């Protein structure tokens, strides 16, 4: 998957093709300012099924030296296959367009930059058939622009300086100068540079500083960076709201269950009280019948009748109390 820094390192040249001529002086060459620039297709695939794509491809036309092609590659780390791919790109483009072809590799760390700028030769040492010599822009040669006035003079170059120094200690000062310079720039100029810089910083610590700077200095409500902030805030608020709703639902369910249980317990209690009342009434009826018949009721009989809570058993005792010759015989069928 292509990373945001990868996109920022080459797409900034699509945004401002003249940037290459301004960068070239830091690379030890002198490239005239183009009078015209055209973005070309980046697909370099032939009939061979292997797909090959250069990151950015521009046709630049100069007043004095004529047209030439500029292939821009963003390189985040060393890769042993890249030099051969770069050689293929330049040879293919030279063959297809019949124009001089330059290769610019943009890096964000010193180690990758040193690796990328080494010449690569195709052929035996004594027969260097083809030699690839990329131009490399990185933290080793891009300017450290910490003066807002210098940043204001070339905003795109200042953005590239921030991107290539993203992992360097100087990046904070560069970002402060750039944000100050962008403060007075028109929105259509400032907005893409805010986004390029944010993408180039990726998840490095400087990203938080840049976000705070542009949040204070710029109206960036529609930018890539603003959407990222919104996504973070949405996720945070979503978690907070879900937790709140979860607590509310749990409280509501507890109240509903409590009310339901209360009704169930009330019904159970009523049934128990009715059974108890019925048992007391039958016990009284049994003792009343025995007394009316003039039978001797011992304390044991009285206690057994009054302590019984089984309505069915009391019903049988009540039926026997009508005919039993003695009070104790009420229980004989039990």
Can you characterise this structure?
Helix 1 packs antiparallel against helix 6, helix 1 runs antiparallel to helix 8 and helix 7 packs parallel to helix 9. The strands form two sheets. Strands 1-2-3-4-7 form a five-stranded mixed sheet. The protein has about 325 residues and is α/β, with parallel strands linked by helices. The mean pLDDT is about 85. The two termini are about 85 Å apart. The protein contains twelve helices and seven strands. It is about 55% helix and about 10% strand.
The tally of helices reads 12
Mean pLDDT: 84
**Can you give the helix content as a percent range?**
55-70%
Content of β-strand: 5-15%
Number of strands: 7
Oligomer description: single chain
Low-confidence stretches: none
Order of helices and strands: HHEEEHEHEEEHHHHHHHH
Shape: rod-shaped
Largest sheet: 5 strands, mixed
Strand neighbour order, sheet with most strands: 1-2-3-4-7
- Structural class estimated from helices and strands: alpha/beta
Quote the distance from N terminus to C terminus.
Answer: 87 Å
The radius of gyration is 45 Å
Quick structural gist:
The protein is α/β, with parallel strands linked by helices.
Q: Main traits of this protein?
A:
single chain, 334 residues, alpha/beta, five-stranded mixed sheet, two-stranded antiparallel sheet, 12 helices, 7 strands, 55% helix, rod-shaped
Helices and strands, with pairings:
Layout: H1 4-15, H2 19-24, E1 34-39, E2 56-62, E3 66-74, H3 82-97, E4 101-106, H4 110-116, E5 120-122, E6 130-132, E7 135-137, H5 148-153, H6 155-164, H7 171-182, H8 187-201, H9 206-217, H10 224-292, H11 299-307, H12 311-321
Parallel strand pairs: 3-4, 4-7
Antiparallel strand pairs: 1-2, 2-3, 5-6
């Amino acid at each position: 998957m292509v990373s945001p820094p990868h996109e920022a390192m080459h797409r900034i040249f699509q945004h401002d093709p003249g940037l290459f001529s301004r960068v070239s002086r830091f690379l030890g060459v002198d490239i005239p300012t183009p009078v015209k620039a055209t973005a070309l297709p980046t697909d370099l695939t032939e009939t061979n099924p292997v797909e090959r794509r250069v990151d950015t491809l521009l046709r630049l036309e100069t007043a004095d030296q004529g047209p030439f092609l500029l292939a821009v590659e963003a390189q985040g780390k060393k890769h042993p296959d890249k030099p051969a791919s770069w050689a293929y790109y330049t040879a293919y483009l030279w063959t297809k367009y019949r124009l001089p072809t330059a290769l610019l590799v943009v890096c964000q760390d010193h180690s990758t930059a040193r690796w990328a700028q080494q010449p690569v030769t195709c052929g035996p040492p004594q027969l260097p058939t083809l030699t690839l010599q990329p131009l490399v822009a990185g933290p080793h040669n891009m300017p450290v622009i910490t003066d807002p006035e210098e940043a204001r003079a070339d905003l795109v170059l200042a953005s590239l300086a921030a991107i290539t120094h993203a992992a360097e200690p100087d990046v904070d000062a560069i970002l402060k100068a750039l944000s100050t310079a962008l403060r007075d720039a028109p929105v259509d100029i400032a907005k893409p540079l805010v986004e390029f810089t944010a993408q180039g910083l990726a998840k490095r610590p400087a990203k938080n500083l840049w976000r705070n700077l542009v949040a204070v200095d710029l109206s960036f409500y529609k930018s890539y960076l603003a959407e990222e902030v919104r996504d973070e805030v949405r996720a945070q608020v979503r978690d907070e709201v879900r937790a709140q709703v979860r607590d509310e639902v749990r409280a509501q369910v507890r109240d509903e269950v409590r009310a339901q249980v209360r009704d169930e317990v009330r019904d159970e209690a009523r049934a128990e009280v009715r059974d108890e009342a019925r048992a007391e009434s039958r016990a009284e009826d049994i003792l009343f019948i025995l007394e009316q018949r003039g039978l001797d009721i011992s304390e044991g009989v009285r206690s057994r009748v009054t302590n019984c809570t089984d309505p069915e058993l009391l019903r049988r005792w009540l039926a026997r109390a009508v005919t039993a010759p003695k009070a104790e015989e009420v229980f004989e069928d039990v």
